[in-house]
Each structure stands twice: as C-alpha cells, then as structure tokens.
Design brief:
Blueprint (H helix, E strand, L loop, with lengths): L7 E5 L12 E2 L2 H13 L1 H6 L12 E8 L7 H16 L4 E4 L13 H6 L3 H5 L3 E4 L12 H5 L10 E5 L2 E5 L9 H13 L4 E5 L14 H14 L3 E4 L5 E4 L6 E5 L15 E5 L3 E8 L2 E8 L4 E8 L1
Parallel strand pairs: 3-4, 4-5, 7-8, 8-9, 9-11
Antiparallel strand pairs: 1-2, 1-15, 3-13, 6-7, 10-11, 10-12, 13-14, 14-15
Length: 312
C-alpha cells in the first residue's frame, strides 16, 4: 500500500472513547509541540480548543489490536493498565495484544511469569486474547531470554519472527546486543520483500526516534529508515523509553513508543519529531481501516488522551 499525500489529524484530551470521530481538529506538529506542556497540565483546555471539521471517511475497520511495553513490573500500575485494557475490550473488541519487551522485571526471570504477566492480564487471557511478545534488555538477563521465547503465553516463534493477522503482517525483531544482527537483517529484508500484506508493522523493544531519556538513535535511523521506506513499513512500535509518544509520519512510517505499561515512568517533552508525547501509565490501540490508521493512547482511567489519524 503506497502512501499518498498525508493529512495528519490529532485529537487529544477526550473525555471518553466515543463511537465516532466528530469534533476532530486539524493540528500542525508545531501547534502540538507548543501546547504540550499546557496539555499535560490540563487536557480539557486543549480539547476545548479543537475546531470542528467534516467527518472523516475511514472506510471499514479491518483490524484492531493493542500494544504495551515495559509492562512486567507486577505492581499496582501494571495491574491498573491490565484492568483498563480489559475494560476497553468490552467496548471495542480485539484479540491481539503486542508486548514490546521488558516483559518481566527485573531480570526476565520466568519464575515471575504469574505476577508479571498471567495475573495482570488474567481477564484478557481468559477471553482468548493472544499476546505476541518481543524481548527487551531486561528479559535477556536470564539465559539470554530463551525461557521467554519458549513460554507458550508469549507466542514467540523464535527470537525474531513474522506473522499475519487480517490485512497486516507483523515483523518482530530482537535488537538486543546479546545476539548478532547479520542473519536477522537478511531475513527481515527478505520477509518485507516477500510480503503482500496491505499493512506492514514492525516492533522491537528499542526506539529509533524518541524525545525521551534515550533519545533518537542515529545508528538505528541510518540502518532502519531506508529499509522501512523501501518496503513501505507503516508503523514501528517499541518500548524501552518509559513514556507514550506518537511521531509524525517520517518518510511514510509512524513511530509509536508505548513503554508506559507498568514500569516507573520517565519525563518526556515533545520534540520536532513528535505528534504527541506524554508521561502517564496506559496502553496504545491501533485500528487499521481501509483508508487510514488510527492510533490512540488510553490511560488507566479508560480515557483517550491522544488520537492520531494517518490517512493513506
């Protein structure tokens, strides 16, 4: 699916999920960056400033899934995120959840799988939601992450793997320094080349673009952005940074940081690559429509704090 001219629409500070998209405001990246501090202190203020525009023609919904990362703390914050995900599913059904690494703190001990995964997401697992994980740096501290690769609940075919769900093909990478990348990159490029999926989504634990603690990685940008551009990758999802951030489309790819699933948060301030950034616990939802991708950030209170629509 080739990207045509993009229009970026951003809605923030909604009081609930809602069924429609009325009330969207057409916002520039510069506008959002200038207003970020004000939004963080008063979401209602920014929401009130949104201008009404014409309804958006998204086409039929093709796939909905959720994503979270840096989640395996086993504390009250992770349980709050898990409850919010389960409540969201009652209103907006999904059967896929992406785990972006650091699935078990502090050292990836599989002995902690109950408190770090099975209990916080018990309602989702009981409902048949399939979690698909990748490995984070904390996960590799125990046997280089192999126990998690073998754990059935994470549905990892190997350290890096691909799978198809509906119109989307997902490419899951292991970008830890504990393994060589050469074979993985050859595999990745070939899988992208062979894919006939309308939507291409990549995820791993580590950020490529970020406005947070670790920042943008020039080496990762140099390595991956030409690959993404050549093969039409629509979305890259990661954790490692302990905040939520949605980039503006960069050479056709949107970068989503969703490392706010339970581990201690870190401060973030929107930068030139940001469409929206905030430090608060929650999870992300991604909806793929015939004509657009819709990304939402949802807090532990169940309210949408960010929504972006990327037209294709």
């Amino acid at each position: 699916m080739a990207f045509r001219r993009r229009r970026f629409l951003i809605l923030a500070g909604l009081s609930g999920l809602g069924a429609g998209f009325a009330g969207y405001g057409l916002r520039s990246v510069a506008d959002v960056s200038r207003e970020q501090d004000q939004f963080n202190s008063s979401p209602e203020t920014l929401a009130a400033r949104q201008d009404a525009i014409n309804p958006i023609d998204l086409g039929p919904l093709q796939l909905r899934f959720v994503a979270t990362a840096d989640s395996g703390s086993g504390d009250k914050n992770q349980f709050a995120v898990g409850r919010a995900m389960a409540e969201y599913r009652k209103r907006s059904p999904f059967d896929l959840a992406v785990l972006g690494g650091d699935n078990i703190y502090n050292s990836g001990e599989i002995s902690k799988i109950k408190i770090a995964f099975e209990d916080p997401y018990a309602d989702l697992l009981k409902a048949g939601v399939k979690f698909r994980a990748c490995l984070g740096n904390h996960d590799t501290r125990t046997e280089n992450g192999e126990p998690q690769v073998k754990y059935p609940g994470f549905n990892m075919d190997s350290r890096y793997y691909t799978y198809r769900q509906g119109p989307a093909q997902f490419f899951v990478l292991d970008l830890n320094v504990s393994i060589p990348w050469d074979d993985q990159l050859v595999w990745f490029k070939q899988q992208l080349k062979d894919s006939k999926a309308p939507w291409k989504i990549v995820y791993s634990h580590f950020p490529i673009y970020s406005s947070g603690h670790y920042g943008t990685s020039p080496d990762m940008v140099k390595l991956f952005t030409p690959i993404f551009k050549e093969h039409g990758v629509h979305l890259y999802i990661n954790g490692h940074e302990h905040h939520y951030e949605r980039s503006r489309p960069l050479d056709g790819t949107t970068y989503l940081i969703t490392g706010h699933g339970g581990a201690s948060l870190r401060p973030v301030k929107a930068s030139g690559i940001s469409a929206f950034a905030v430090s608060r616990f929650g999870f992300s939802t991604i909806e793929l429509y015939e004509k657009a991708m819709v990304i939402q950030g949802i807090g532990t209170d169940g309210k949408v704090f960010d929504r972006g629509v990327i037209k294709v």
